[in-house]
Amino acid sequence: MEKANDKTIGDAGALIARARDEIGRRIVGQADLIDALLTGIIAGGHVLVEGVPGLAKTQAVKALADVTSASFKRIQFTPDLLPADLTGTMIYRSQTGEFVPRKGPVFTNVLLADEINRAPAKVQSALLEAMAESHVTIGERTYPLPEPFFVMATQNPIEQEGTYRLPEAQLDRFLLKAKVEYPSPAEELAVLDRMVDAPDIPLNTVLDKEGILRLRKAAESVKAEESIRRYIVSLVAASRVKDRRKLPFSRYVEYGASPRASLALYRCARVQALYEGRNFVLPEDVKSVAPLVLRHRIVLSYEAEAEQLDADAVIAGLLAAVSVP
User: Fold this and answer.
1) Which residue in 195, 157, 159, 152 sits closest to 29, CA to CA?
2) Which residue of 201, 237, 247, 262 has the lowest C-beta tally within 10 Å?
């Protein structure tokens, strides 16, 4: 029984590696973004991506849809967007004299919500409700969303005019937040060599929808000992400590992460172990995904802003302060 389980885990790890490699045929660099997208879809969560335009965010999620043979739709969020433009609405059919539902673009497997902070609060709430509940109500009927359903939302960090900042409670609905940085000169040169003459590199299907669901079950079978679970809870709880004598770094945190962060850390750490072909979680798995899980769930204090510390620096301090099992 144990050998069969080990084989399943090993096969899952090899399958994820093949998906990584296939996406890498179109996307140069951006390994952290690719891993975040795969982690999100395997863990059954959604990913918020922050980065300036032109860093292959759209291409990355389209490549993910291609290698998973999933349906893909993109929504450009704008200030004049309405919730019905996203979820759908009832339309009148004159031939029959009745109202029928017209489903919106949210009914897809992989959805790109581009520049989500440009849409007003009602539209943001409509998307986040669909993310949380996996269904949409149109008229008097509720319609389930396709399975799997995965959202990658993007934010542009350098433009604030005409945007609507996502509240912290809504940010908490995203499983992960990935930050996309500029490529190195060598990677940028590879982009020129690869993409100028052949921008649409065809990708092979590595995963189908059933394969994604199998990977989710494989991740659920990854074990985490009690010491690991305690470490996860201690790390999240440390973000809520207010006593500076116990944790000097607490002065940089105004509000800490909620128990939802503990659940997200647990789920993502199991997927990280799956990447390595292991059926058990190590503390290093928790550490590697902690910035992705916590950076959008911690509200920094005025002292952190005054000292020009970002969330990643505070998370590094928490990781250093909490003892590793």
Assistant:
1) 195
2) 201
Q: Are 138 and 31 in contact (CB under 8 A)?
A: no
Contact indicator for 265, 293 with CB cutoff of 8 Å: yes
30 & 176 share domain:
yes
Position 15 in a domain: no
Q: In 10 A of CB 56, how many CB atoms?
A: 21
The distance between the two most distant Cα atoms of the chain, rounded to a whole number of Å, is: 73
Q: How far apart are CA 17 and CA 287, in angstroms?
A: 21
Q: Across the strands, what pairs with 314?
A: none
Specify the CATH number for the domain of residue 236: 1.10.8.80
What CATH number corresponds to the domain at position 156? 3.40.50.300
Q: What is the pTM of this model?
A: 0.89
Range of the domain at 191: 26-198
Run means of pLDDT, 10 residues per run, the chain, 325 residues: 59 88 87 93 93 86 90 91 89 81 91 89 86 86 90 82 72 91 88 74 85 90 93 93 76 88 95 91 95 92 87 90 87
